[in-house]
Every structure is written in structure tokens, then in C-alpha cells.
Amino acid sequence: MQASTPVYFHVDLDAFYASVEQLDHPEYRGRPVIVGALPGSRGVVSACSYEARRYGVHSAMPISEAYRRCRHGVFVPVRMQRYRDVSRQVMELLARFTPELQQISVDEAFLDLSGTERLFGEPRSVAQQLRRQLRQETGLAATIGVAASRYIAKLASTFAKPDGLHVVAPGAAADFVLQLQLRDLWGVGRKTLSRLEALGIDTVAALRAAEPPFLRGHFGESTGQYLYQVSRGIDPGIYAAEAQSRSVSSETTFGTDVSDREVIERTLLELAELVMFRLREEHCGGVTVTVEVRDDDFTTRSAQRTLQRPVASVDELYREARALLAKRWDGVTPLRLIGLGVAGVRSDSEELQPDLFTDQHEDKRRKVEEALLDLRRKRPDSAPVTRARLLRPGDTSPPELPR
Ligand SMILES: [Mg+2]
């Protein structure tokens, strides 16, 4: 690749939650591991190993269905704090390759390696080295997609999964997408797929052949434009904005569209923990909280609120986020993505002086959480206290402080 060509890696850990369980429990290796609710309950699969996927088990599937398909599977509960700790270790490793790191979920990140070839070498060998190092230092497998844009890098990693590497050379993106199915084009939802099919469009090539006015007429301006771009291997720019802004945000894309309130709220809490954790690690605070949801047809809605002082705790962020979610989600529509961000970030020293915490209760809560985060750093196996006390079913009142 030429020095002037942008180089993006999309690094995606394979079956992350299940892989961490197999890492921590060698007896699970090679077996179908299903992380999520336990059989007999009403919950769903959060994640599963590739061995379990062979039985047709996938994330967001009701656990009873997963059990029916794979009775001999290893069913284990979600240990979010452990996954967060491993995730942090992974992200630290990735950051050694470039400071231009954009973490987009607990197990996924974009690395901008543009212009680093002289330093590190050719992108393919850098990606191989990264995968090797990750396996040596963490015991985990990651798949990497390499391309001249973030969108194509993401498609390339999906294409190469699991435990793979795929490099799309500059100028080859348009050809690369032709080998994919329409449903592999990230952001093309189920509704759009079935409408395309009804119009006789069932391949990427057929989509590319469609005239722009035809696409706009059937799908509207923004989806029409999106389809036009992605069928040609052009990055529609969905990840570009976040990289520039002074904010900390994170999002989760569900493997299958989700309408289960419990799953949505737990995901929102996980995001609140991650965002708050990153704000603290970077000694930042922020005042504007944004929640974004995207339905299965790529319609995106967001709501935001600006607080009078920086958000102080996971509890507070989660409560704000849940109130914002209620404004943009009817509790029924299946979601494919949920995101949470905090903007207006300034350094701790300017904005987060203790005396700014006029609310004594919040200040105390913040101190307790910081102590818990410290404890978790030192003892990764300690119980995930925050999550347990926040997620009491049906409880809408602010949670109590732990003793
Ligand atoms: Mg993954």
C-alpha cells in the first residue's frame, strides 16, 4: 500500500464472552459454551462459542431454545466485570500499535494505521503480528479486517471470522463487496432486505445495478444513498463522527434484533459502566448524555440531555440513560443497536472538583464506585456489585449504596 493510502484495522475478538470462559475454565475448551441466562429461566443467550453455533445456537436466542438444541452445552452466567477487565487488557495491547484507537464495543476496535508503514511494516504483517501477540499475551483469538476505510475493514473481519485475517487492497473494495451476500452489508436491516428481495434484488451486483432514483424512490433519501454507497464498497461514514468528537461513547450491536427489555436495559447498564470507566481512566467528566437506538431497518433515533454538572457515577449515568431510552424506544420495536455517549468532556481538574458535587448523595456514591473500581482492578474476581444492585427487576427507584 502507498504511504498516502489510509489503513484501517477492524479488530474483533472471536466469540468473546465464551472465549473468556474457555480461557478461565480449561475444561470448557472444545465444548459448546453458552453464556447468558440459565436453562429454565426466561432469559436469552448473550454469547456462545463456535462449538455451540454448530448447533444453531446464536446470541439473543431464548435460552430454552438453546437448551433444546444443545442439551450437553455448558451453560454459564454472564461475568461482565471479568470481560471488561480482559477487554481493557486487549485495548491496552492494541494501543501499543497506534494511539488512533477507536473502541466501538467491548470486543471490537478500529485502529487507524495510516502512515505507519515505515515504522511497523506492511499492514498484513502488522496484523499477523498483532494477532500473534494477542494470543500470546491474552490467550484470545481475534479476527482482523484491513482496508482503506473503516466500513470495509469491518466487513472484511466479518468475512474472515473466526480466527482469520482478510486484507482488502486499496481500490479493491468494490470487487470485495461483490463476493458478499446482501445481508453481510453492515447496516442493511431485515426490513430493507425483504423489500429488496420483493423488488427482485437479491445480490450485491443487482443492488449496484439499481439506478439511484429507483433506490431513493423505494427507500427514501438516506437509506437509498446508503445502499448506493455500500453496494460499491464506499464507506457510508457511520463511524467517522465519533472518532473526531470530544466525547466518550460506546455502542452495542446485537447479533439478532432484540426487543427484550431486560436485555436492552442490561446492555445499557454495561455501556454506562464502560463509558463511566473510560471517563474515569482519562480523568474526564461530561455533561451531555446521549442515547441512540437503531431499529432493524437502520432508522436511528437519539435523545440527549445536558446536566447541570458532570455525570458523577455509573448509577447516575444509567438512570439518565434509561430515562432517555424511554423517550426513543416504545419497548416493543426490535433494536439492532444501542449506544450511549457522554460529551462536553473536560479534564477532571477543571470540572470535577469535589466541591462541584453539590449533591452529597451523588458524591458519596461516586466515591463508593471509585473504591469498587479500584478493588476490581486489584481483584478481578470480586463480585460485580454495581450490576447486581442496579438491575433489580421492576425497581425504578434509585438503588441503595452498598454497605
Ligand atoms: Mg466479536
Question: Would you give an account of this structure?
Answer:
The chain is built from 17 helices and 14 strands. The chain folds into three domains: 1-84 and 108-168, 3-Layer(aba) Sandwich (MutS, DNA mismatch repair protein, domain I), CATH 3.40.1170.60; 175-230, DNA polymerase, domain 1 (Orthogonal Bundle); 245-390, 2-Layer Sandwich (Dna Ligase, domain 1). By secondary structure, it is of the alpha+beta class. The strands form four sheets. A five-stranded mixed β-sheet has the order 5-6-1-7-8. It has a four-stranded antiparallel β-sheet with strand order 9-13-11-12, covered by helices on one side. Strands 3-2-4 form a three-stranded mixed β-sheet. A hairpin with a 2-residue loop joins strand 5 (101-105) and strand 6. The radius of gyration is 21 Å and the shape is globular. Magnesium ion binds at residues 12-13, 16, 107-108. Magnesium ion binds next to strand 1.
**What is the 3D form?**
globular
Strand line-up across the major sheet: 5-6-1-7-8
CATH class of the largest domain: Alpha Beta
- Average residue pLDDT: 83
- Number of helical stretches of at least 4 residues: 17
Please give the structural blueprint:
Elements: E1 8-13, H1 16-24, E2 33-36, E3 45-48, H2 50-53, H3 63-69, E4 74-76, H4 80-95, E5 101-105, E6 108-112, H5 117-120, H6 123-138, E7 142-147, H7 150-160, E8 165-167, H8 173-178, H9 190-198, H10 204-209, H11 212-230, H12 240-244, E9 247-258, H13 261-281, E10 284-285, E11 288-295, E12 300-306, H14 314-328, E13 335-343, E14 346-347, H15 348-351, H16 360-378, H17 385-390
Parallel strand pairs: 2-4, 7-8
Antiparallel strand pairs: 1-6, 1-7, 2-3, 5-6, 9-13, 10-14, 11-12, 11-13
